[in-house]
Amino acid sequence: MGCRDVHAATVLAFLSGTASVAGLLAAVLLPNWRQMRLYTFNKNERNVTIYTGLWIKCARFDGSRDCVIYDPQWYTAVDQLDLRVLQFALPLSMLTAVSALFLCLIGMCNTAFVSTVPNIKLAKCLVNSAGCHLVAGLLFLLACAICLTPSIWVIFYNNYLNRKYEPVFSFDISVFIAIASAGGLFFTSVLLFLWYCACKSLPSPFWQPLYSHAPSMHSYASQPYSARSRLSAIEIDIPVVTHAS
């Protein structure tokens, strides 16, 4: 696997990261993080399910798709700690993943369109493709941790609410979407790490695996020696001055 070519691993990592960010966006916007189902014993009334999201809250009767109560200002009055943490964690995870996608795209464009022989005058300023992918992999891993931890906490916090109040709470589809997106971010980081390890040359620095030594830095032309410089000291004729008596 040559580092100076765009490979299926980096393209697949970019597509996987894009899909994961799209999944995170859907999880953030959907009002389906927690359900609270209220039962009634009156035959003339219908049960009510309250859908709680990160930003809005919606109450629906069974069999209806319209919200009886719609609260678009729910994000300012969230009274559940796990959802409040997710309001900050998921946008931060998305921002980190988008930064990683941007770096990954820069690395692929640099690999595809930049010459493999750098200019010696710009060797220290060049964008390094594999370095971009390495940092992108680290950012994807960080985004996965930021997203996965509070998403799993929702499950345990839901059990806590059922024990504290009544068993009417259940986590909804957004939890699964967020966990699946975190898995996609982790898969993306693993792909980039595998590509980096396969491409990294051993003698190169950790952050510059491609152009650790610019070709023009060590391609010195051999200077021609004069014929007299190749003679040893013994072979050089030393003139002897004699004085006539």
UniProtKB/TrEMBL annotation:
Q: Which UniProt keywords apply?
A: Cell junction, Membrane, Tight junction, Transmembrane, Transmembrane helix
Membrane topology type:
Multi-pass membrane protein
GO CC, one annotated term:
bicellular tight junction
The family this protein is said to belong to: Belongs to the claudin family.
Q: Identify the taxonomic lineage of the organism of origin.
A: Eukaryota, Metazoa, Chordata, Craniata, Vertebrata
Name it: CLD12 protein
Localization in the cell? Cell junction, Tight junction; Membrane
Is Glycosyltransferase among this UniProt entry's keywords? no
This protein's major location comes to other
Annotated TM spans = 6-30, 88-114, 134-156, 168-196
Which superkingdom? Eukaryota
